[in-house]
Amino acid sequence: MSVGAPKIPVVVAEVIEVNALIKRFRFVRRDGLAMPVFSGGAHVVVEMDDHGTRRMNPYSLMSAPGDTSGYEISVRRDEAGRGGSLYMHNHVRAGMEMVLSQPVNLFPLDARAKKHLLIAGGIGITPFVAQMAQLEAMGGRFELHYSVRSPALGAYVDHLRGRYGARVHVYHDAFDEKIDLANLLKTQPLGTHVYVCGPKGMIAWVHATARAMGWPDRAVHSEEFLAPPVGLAFDVSLAASGKTITVQPNQSLLEAIEAAGVDAPYLCRGGACGQCETDVLRCEGHIEHNDHWLSDDQKASHTKIMPCVSRFRGAGLVLDR
Amino acid sequence: MSLDFNDETFRGDFTYRNSARAIKRFPFPFPEDSYMYSVNMEPHVPGPVGSVFEHMFDVDEHYVSEMRDRAQVLADDPLRCQSLPHMELAGWDLLELIMESKARDYPHWFSLHRDGNQWHWINRPLQIEQRFTFMDASTLPCGPMEYITRQTQGDFTLQDQRDDDLWIEAGMVTTQADWSLDFDIGMSFKQWHAPVPLAHQAGIFDRALKFLLKLQHGAPVRRFNWTMTVDPLLDTSPENYPKWGPSKTTMTPETVGRRQHLRVELQTLHRLPRSNAIAFPIRCYLISFQDLVTVPKWARRMHRVVRDIPDELATYKGFIRNKALMLDYLAPFDDGLPTSPGFAPE
Question: Domain spans of chain A?
Fold first, then answer.
């Protein structure tokens, strides 16, 4: 359970095939109330009942933040993943009832910025769709640089160009087009903040380039949710609740804890926010730390674990949960 | 003024009084016989009917007079209300939260009609009727935060969230326990809490900040804070210390029961949806010692808390000078009997 905010009961209003890899889902409330307004960059956790396995995946909201009639997300099909995106693609249909968390924003705009420079790669476009709608409504200054594989896989390019015109710049890998990042960063007005959402390599490239050019770290923002990796099954003892559980290969430790009926805190479910941090009471073996949260020292000490993305190999693991 | 609200002053002749009902519902802040800092936060969910927790924003018999006092403080010192330019969106979030809550919880006093962005607000106790365009500050007589907090009891600060920290960058502060918005504005969470003794070493602020950064919209939390104030003065500000500080030196055994007040802050924290900022209402309740001791459990416990509090805290809270005077007054009400756990009277 995540910090006590009430969940949102929804029905799937619409499923749109955006391209060969991406589907868009629209949710409206079942109880007739208005959706909460949110801030651009926020995500919701979508709860899925995948044939008896409970999956809870975070997705960025891409509908306009002030639109209380419904929420929209886009999901990219991940054939190698644990199954959440495949479930959304293969089984979720209009009319199905589902449950969403309240929106949480771990990738907010900096309200002080004189200009917002948005850099997206692939499905990383989704938080920016909401942020641009918010900036447009408030008269904020922004520019989008969006890298896609090919015109066919350029999700929402036409929509965004139609709405924001010359503020949208699109680059196609298929045509060897590349964002000229050094030049872009060199020509921004003072007070610009940079935001990047996309593949790991792109995020690292933007941070490294900006830092080398003397940009303050606090003016460069990124969001990278990790999908919980698959791995070997392992057993864990939960000391506080007196249970021993088995984590299946395509299940996260957090999901296994929840499946055992133990309430555990979470927000992002992607190794970024720190909310699910758990004390390790005993560790005979090796923790596979997959998160962005713990320091290197903490990881090496094997005294903390982030159960949303991290796994274990060895003889025994005991958690204070 | 209607029968619902007292006509009273928080300055000069100090005619502020608590009715029997107000004493009964006073938020006595000590769950046990001693006091130390803690991250004493709990969900801000509706409490018992008639309690100060019944509604999201408590409106009580002091409402109209408190708003009159706030207007006077602002007329004398406009810097008590400030909002940095990037905080206006958070101000709209706060205005929406308060208007919706009050219209829902007190429909006989407040009404809100929304037609898209065309809003119509009626505040009957203050005789205000306003039509305005939501998110267009030019349609209000002042900024959205100032507008709504001139009509809402308690101080308010708005914290922007960025760089894994909270920054106090807007506020309406006229009923404060000796701190200054004008001095603190722009500071980070630990900067504005720097003067608090003992709590930093205990790691209180590390844990509190970590908790607040993850605060969710729709799940507000609350905690108590408290101090002591001589005379029912809402505006105990550093700016006006020369005016009210000397009052601590003129209390006598004959006047302590009437003049010494326990000052309780009901603090709530709300994640705001559009701005991702945090609103921090700090609602002040005052009760004289002579009213407080009418509840036997509170009298016993107040005596024990004041008697056993560390000197650093009594100094920080500004009552060490009168501690002996207060104990002499409270001691006869403490018969040494045990008290039950929790806030409620026996």
Answer: 8-105, 115-223, 234-319
**Assigned domain for B114 exists:** no
**Can you give the residue range of the structural domain that contains B47?**
20-85+149-333
Nearest CA-CA distance, residue B313 and chain A, Å? 31
The model's confidence at residue A223, banded by pLDDT at 50, 70 and 90, is confident
Give chain B positions within 8 Å (CB) of A274: 210, 214
Identify all chain B residues contacting A275, using CB atoms and an 8 Å cutoff: 214
Fold exhibited by the domain A115-223 = Rossmann fold (3.40.50)
Beta carbons of B273 and A36 less than 8 Å apart: yes
* A146/A169 Cα distance (integer angstroms): 6
| CATH 3.10.20.340 for the A8-105 domain, yes or no | no
In a domain, B3, yes or no: no
B221 phi/psi in degrees, rounded to 5: -125, 165
Question: Alpha-carbon distance A276 to A6, whole Å?
Answer: 18
d(CA B135, CA B144): 8
Q: What is the pLDDT of residue A224?
A: 75
Round the CA-based radius of gyration of chain B to a whole number and report it: 20
CATH number given to A234-319: 3.10.20.30
Question: In angstroms, rounded to a whole number, what is the distance separating the alpha carbons of residues A248 and A256?
Answer: 8
A223 beta partners: A197
Alpha carbon distance A38, B205 (integer Å):
28
With respect to residue B211, please indicate whether it lies within any of the assigned structural domains.
Answer: yes
Give percent above pLDDT 90 in chain A: 79
H or E stretch covering A226? none
pLDDT of amino acid B319: 95
Question: Angle, nearest 10°, between helix axes B296-308 and B323-330?
Answer: 150
Q: What is the mean pLDDT of residues B184-210?
A: 86
Do A210 and A238 meet the contact criterion of CB atoms below 8 Å apart? no
Q: Which residue of A has its CA nearest to B96?
A: A37
Does the predicted interface ipTM exceed a cut of 0.90? no
Count CB pairs under 8 A between chains A and B.
Answer: 58
Residue A3's pLDDT band, with cuts at 50, 70 and 90, is very low
What SS3 class is residue A27? strand
Chain A closest-CA separation from residue B304 CA (Å): 35
pLDDT of residue A87: 95
Chain B partners of A273 at a C-beta cutoff of 8 Å? 214
Angle between the N-to-C axes of helices A126-138 and A157-164, in degrees from 0 to 180, rounded to the nearest 10: 10
- Per-residue model confidence (pLDDT) at position A185: 98
| Averaged pLDDT score across all residues of chain B | 94
Q: Which of A184-188, B107-111, B211-215 has the lowest mean pLDDT?
A: B211-215
pLDDT digit string (tens) for B101-145?
999 999 999 999 999 999 999 999 999 999 999 999 999 999 999
Does residue B253 lie within any of the structural domains? yes
What domain count does chain B have? 1
